[in-house]
Amino acid sequence: MSFLLGISRLIDAVNEKIGAWVSWLSLVAVIVSSLNAIMRYSFDLSSNAWLELQWYLFAAVFMLAGAYSLRHNEHVRIDIIFNKLSPKKQAIVDTFGMLLFLTPMCLIVIYDGWGFFAESWRIQEMSSNPGGLIRWPVKLLIPVGFTLLFLQGISQLIKQLAFLADRAENPLEYHEKVR
Known about the structure:
Blueprint: H1 2-43, H2 48-64, H3 66-71, H4 79-82, H5 87-122, H6 136-164, H7 171-178
Helix pairs in contact: 1-2, 1-6, 2-6, 5-6
């Protein structure tokens, strides 16, 4: 179990670094959006590339921060029911949720997303907008983001199983301490 918990810590560390890095993309998106608006309204200059860059940055934040959100227990769940359960029952619910829902969904999206990206790469797909950007980088975010989410799900699963086996602290309490 200690080997698996070591893997879990490694996955957590990777997603923690990516989450910190991705948070800066929000600032970059705001700056790009502001500069684009200033140029458009002050100088009547506009570019589809700048608008698409904003979309790409938003997509990067959304796709790459999912694993970070799961790590910090900020994902969506029905808290009104979940919070009434004992910690062990919460771990059981999380375990089944990860095995029955998160894992299969991630694997399907990774598989389909890779094909979606690969075709865009193969044809060097470009935006249909004049002056638009290439499309494959933003399409690559789909399998990459879901791979990170899948790995974080594995990490969470390891921690839940260790908690159920009385080999680790409750991972939900840990995240409450982090804040």
